[in-house]
Design brief:
alpha/beta; 6-stranded parallel sheet; 11 helices; 6 strands
Length: 339
């Protein structure tokens, strides 16, 4: 279902979903050509969770995310050209090329930390929430992480402290179950997680927890809005598990693009390779959202196509900007340290 927002708000969510999709699809050929090195993870297939969820926050709220961070940063309003330059390790990047893909941050947008350390952000976000409560600044902290993070000891320790102190923090777990096995089913893809369903873990610490369909943008928006309202009202931490189906392009050791995204796929996926066709037809949250917009008469196919063309133009310009940006000078490595 669609979020209960004005038409302009719905179209902005659509634009941001397209922005994430085409930004990340542009990374694959850049990496394959050697423009940047190192491993990287993509957020494709989870746009209907991150975009509507982050839209529920105030500008001064805090956010923490993992190695799968590009989509969250873009959903929050990071400039594509500066984020891309950061991933390429260039001086015009968000963090002057020092953060790279895994550790890009945007403090001006409330994004205080991205971490490639599994579960590393969970205690950090709990600390920020503790500070907010002590300062009485009214800010909510949102911690975005994957299901694998719950296997680490940092998660229950943080849940315990958050619950004991009724901290203003939302733990948003994005469970991207493997494609080909239907929708994600809690810890179905984990052989080292005894809690089942995943919501049992935060509930053990008396944190209200619920499991939702992360492909349903309207449900995500409504659930996160309600949770954030409860947190602001002093009810303490909340936990949401949003289930999505992993993008087929992430099933290999290195990301690949099974089929370039185009809004026309919302109605006809016959051009997609058969092994990925069902995902694009039933599990692609962007294409589901596009169909819902048109069926609800909130947009026409032509309007959707125009939004996508504008996004593609913006991403092409971002690629040009990032590739042209120089690498930092060697002495830059000795700057911006703190202890």
């Amino acid at each position: 279902m669609l979020p209960k927002l004005p038409r302009d708000g719905l179209l902005e969510l659509c634009r941001r979903m397209f922005l994430i999709r085409h930004f990340e699809e542009s990374l694959v050929p850049l990496h394959d050509k050697g423009v940047f090195g190192g491993h990287y993870h993509l957020y494709i297939g989870q746009e209907a969770t991150g975009v509507p969820a982050i839209s529920c926050l105030k500008p001064d709220d805090y956010l923490f995310t993992t190695h799968r961070n590009h989509g969250h940063l873009l959903a929050r309003g990071a400039e594509p050209k500066r984020l891309l330059a950061e991933i390429l390790g260039r001086v015009d990047g968000l963090n002057k090329g020092k953060g790279g893909s895994f550790h890009s941050v945007a403090p001006s947008l409330g994004f205080l930390h991205s971490s490639g350390v599994v579960a590393g952000i969970i205690p950090l976000s709990t600390g920020t929430a503790y500070a907010s409560k002590a300062l009485k600044n009214g800010r909510v902290t949102v911690c975005l992480f994957g299901d694998g993070s719950l296997e680490e000891g940092a998660a229950p320790e943080a849940f315990n402290l958050a619950s004991l102190n009724k901290l203003p923090v939302l733990f948003l777990c994005e469970n991207n179950g493997k494609y080909g096995a239907g929708r994600a089913v809690a810890a179905g893809q984990s052989s080292s997680m005894a809690a089942y369903p995943l919501t049992d873990l935060p509930k053990a610490y008396k944190i209200p927890a619920q499991q939702i369909d992360g492909i349903d943008a309207g449900l995500v928006h409504a659930t996160v809005s309600e949770a954030v309202e409860k947190i602001r009202g002093g009810d303490g931490p909340q936990f949401i598990e949003a289930q999505t189906v992993r993008w087929p392009g992430s099933e290999t050791n290195w990301p690949s693009v099974p089929h370039p995204t185009d809004s026309s796929l919302a109605w006809d996926v016959s051009a997609v390779a058969e092994k990925a066709r069902e995902w694009y037809h039933s599990c692609d949250p962007l294409l589901v959202f596009v169909r819902e917009l048109v069926e609800a008469k909130q947009a026409t196919k032509d309007e959707i196509a125009a939004i996508e063309r504008q996004v593609k133009t913006e991403i092409a310009a971002a690629v040009e900007f990032a590739v042209a940006s120089p690498y930092p000078k060697p002495e830059e490595a000795e700057r911006n340290f703190f202890a």
